Amino acid sequence: MAAAANGLFRPEANLANMHVKRALAYVLKGQLKPALADCDEALRLNPLDGAAYRTRAEVYRRKGEHAKAEADLERAAALRQP
Length: 82
What we know:
Layout: H1 2-5, H2 11-28, H3 32-45, H4 50-63, H5 66-80
Helix pairs in contact: 2-3, 2-4, 3-4, 4-5
């Protein structure tokens, strides 16, 4: 419970992670529309989720939307910078 008291427990981050994982499953099945929706929801819940940006970049790449894919990869990379 110390993590919760310190504000480290964030249910929205866990839920965002669930959306990213489901998006990856959709991508592997070739279901890009629901994958994109899950990535967007993950980013709504946690705008600092690099995995969501990377996953959405893969969706855009598979859809042929390379400029959007590159933009999301840049956002993900910027989140890794200290």
